[in-house]
Each structure stands twice: as structure tokens, then as C-alpha cells.
Amino acid sequence: MFSFATAPQLALPLGLLAGLRPVDGAFGAGSINAKIGLRLLNCAEIRVGPVETAAESGLPMAELTLRRRIGLAQVVLYGLGVTIGAGIYALVGSTISLACVHAPVAFVLAGLIMVFSAACFAELSGRYPYAAAEARFVREGFASRARFVVVGLGVAMIGIVSAAAIVHGAFGYLSSAVPLSPPVLLALVIGGCAIVASMGIQSSVGIAGVLTLVEIGCLLLIIGGGLWAGRDIAGQAALAVPATLSLPVWAGVMAASLLAFFAFIGFGDVVSIAEETTNPQNTLALGIFLTLGITTLLYLGVVLTVLATNDLAEIASHPSPLTLAFTRNTGLPEIVLVAIASAATLNGVIVQILMAGRVIFGMARDRELPGRLARLSPRTATPVFATMVCAVACIGLLVAGVLAEA
Q: Which of 33, 61, 87, 161 is a Cys-bridge partner for 263, taking CB atoms 3.0 to 4.6 Å apart?
């Protein structure tokens, strides 16, 4: 989000500034958000034409419209899948190093900050539940097709680069487990994820949801293992809130909260499936807030468990304190956590390619990209060609990076 310096969500608070048209949003018709925007900015109502019709585009209606098939549970699982990932595994040790026993407060503060962005997503996605949603928010707010194109391409590119980065990060493990040449291995991983993303939306989100449950299960296993091992998690929670107004203490907490914020990035990608969500005005808003709430609780439980399991010196010196807590509390080997991290890798790639494909489709449907990218598969009702274009771009980035490092 622009207000929090996160590129994937650059457009969202901006769309709210225009006051927007009187369309039912997540908080009702003519909601307080829009009224406040009009009063504060004293801006005139901006009207931008609706989604073009089939006749205007020259394509049959069946090739222009995504099908609304997913409900609240699937939206929440999708949101958790794009939010919970490698961030929590990498950031636990760093946040504890900055805030010590007060690190849980840093995660709570980061979650509270994200509430404002969640409200923007909820309101705007309810008003404009279309593919390429972030770009559409900007176009509706500024009546600018040029900004629509820039933001749309930017969001799609972020999805492609993110997918490539996820696979690149796991390449070392993948290459040791599967004896194939780097280009072939990368093509197989990205291609397989692209095939999943090209399935019917229920199948794609269903597979991603299963992988999400594996990720969540790992975090719950860490927390449950700590409780089973008799770790004083409640006592650690009592120590989390600073009992002093000391500047160095709160400076550490605030610095840690800025770092913890990056573990929440991603839930805004829920708007990429707005056009395929049933009753989006209510479902998306509730799904976004549930995603944020569940994620915050999981992170809080994990950080408290890590603090209750290891002393601060050990956490500061160990490269992966979460792995240390996992093996000590569950008695399971580290390879189990590695396998779960691999599932997280696949899940992250699937949802990023799925998101990028929907953005490209939405832009093509609005005649900002070649019309072929707006065609949907008659069997799956998904933008297969647009998704495969994103996958090919991702493979190209990966192969170029691997070969440059060789």
C-alpha cells in the first residue's frame, strides 16, 4: 500500500480519495468512507465509464466474464495463503533482536496499522469487484486510463517477480532434491503452478487452500508443541507489554513493528479474485478482515512460543529461531519444517501467478492490452492465455538469474 510503502498495494488508498460513484460498497451505499472523502477533499464526483460490453469489445460475453463461484471460506484461505509465507519464518529472529521480550507488541502494532489498509480494500473492492481491481481503483479515482495502465502493469509485474523470487529462494533445496538442470527444473515448477492457476477458480483456490492449511498447521504445531512441552507462554505474554515509557525500549518496539509489518504484506491480493467471488460486497470485506485477524493471532502465538522456548542470546545467535522452537517443542526433525516450507513455496507461486493473470486479463478486457489476453477458456472460465504469458515471463526471469549466477 502506498501509505505504507508497499508496491503491490500502491493504488488502494488513492482510489478512496475521489469520493467515488454512489455504488454499494463494503460498508453500504453512500458509505461514511466516501462521504468523509468528499468533505475532506471537497472534490467533485468523478465518473468513469463502466466495464465495456461484449459488443464494444468484439468478443462474445462468455469470453469476457469471470464466474462468481467462491465463497467466504475460500476467500479467507486464499487471503491467508498470500499473507502467511516465508516472512514469518525469516522475521521472527530479527524482530526479537530489536524488541526483545516486547516483540509480540510489535506484531500487534503492525496488525493494527494494517486495519486502515484493510478498510480501503474492503470498501473499494465492494464498489468495484472486477479483475485488475487495484488499477481500476486508480482509474475510477483519477479518471485516468494512463494511470490505469501503469498501475495494472506494475501490479502484474510485481506478481511475476514475486513468484520468481519465491522459486529462486527455494532453488537450492529443489535442485538438491530433484537432479535436473536448472532451466528444466525451474520450468517444471513454474509450469506446474501455472497449470494449477489456470484451472477453474474453485479448483485453483482449493489446491492453494490445502497448501495454506499445511502452512497454518505448521504454525499451530509450533504453538501446540510449546503448550504440550509446558512452556510458559502466558507468562511470556505478561512480559510483552513494556512497563516503562523508556525511549530506547519503545524505539526498539517501533523498529520491530516496521519489520513485522512486512510479514502482513499480501492480504490485499484478495481483490484479484473479486470478480470470481459470490456476493463480493459482503464476502470480500469479511474475508479481508478475517484474514488480517487470523494472521495476527497466529503470528502472536508463534512469537510468544519462540520467546518461551529459547533465551534471548540463543535467539540472537541462531540463524532460524523458529526452527529451533519447532524441533525442541515437537521432537520432529528439521526436514519436516523444510517440507512444509516447500509447500509454502508452491502456494506462493500459485497465488502470485493467478493474481498476475487476472490483472492482465482485466486490462486486456478494457482494451489496454491485446484482445487475445482477455479470452477465457470455455472449459475452466479462466484466463489461461494471460496466465501462461505471466508464467513464461516468470520462467524467463528465473533462467536469466540462475544463468547469471552460474
A: 87
